[in-house]
Amino acid sequence: GENVEQHPSTLSVQEGDSAVIKCTYSDSASNYFPWYKQELGKRPQLIIDIRSNVGEKKDQRIAVTLNKTAKHFSLHITETQPEDSAVYFCAAIANAGGTSYGKLTFGQGTILTVHP
Amino acid sequence: IAGITQAPTSQILAAGRRMTLRCTQDMRHNAMYWYRQDLGLGLRLIHYSNTAGTTGKGEVPDGYSVSRANTDDFPLTLASAVPSQTSVYFCASSDSSGGARETQYFGPGTRLLVL
User: Fold this and answer.
1) Looking at the partner chain, which of A42, A49, A108 has a beta carbon nearest the beta carbon of B41?
2) What is the reported pLDDT for A71?
């Protein structure tokens, strides 16, 4: 089955700096890659996603890049703010739209701390 | 519109007891999922249901059962709780009717402590 590795496990940055979180996946058939943000004691919430037919996607200060050949994808947050502090999870799914749709495999999470 | 709700919010349970975690969504999503979240391990899929009347096993199904009698409800049952089932449990749902079928929306979670 799919295996998703996420790095780093913790990340500390100063306000205004950029933050990058990287994930690798094992199943070359994976074709959908969402990123979730989870604040302390809250539910995971989707912040951005990318499909395998696109190499990059951007939404304001957040961007995701995908390298299918190397089987890795990354989350980029620019101009970080204290409210960006949270745990971030990457995930991958193989055969999205097929019989195994919905069965996301999550990375282990990255604790991001943005210092004012 | 409430979205997706879970009950109870938290529970302390004696080992060996039976417990059902409730999950209800009002978004008419076809697919629903149960995950457990443990520190350092992220979210792991327990069971899922692609549509009412069908269920499937996820990554860590042992000790858990589910049912999907209708579109809205997806209860998770621990037949005989053990301390290793202490975790935060999240229910999620997704809409299979369009191109964004993979986007999953999570409930607020149930914190379960088994003693």
Assistant:
1) A108
2) 94
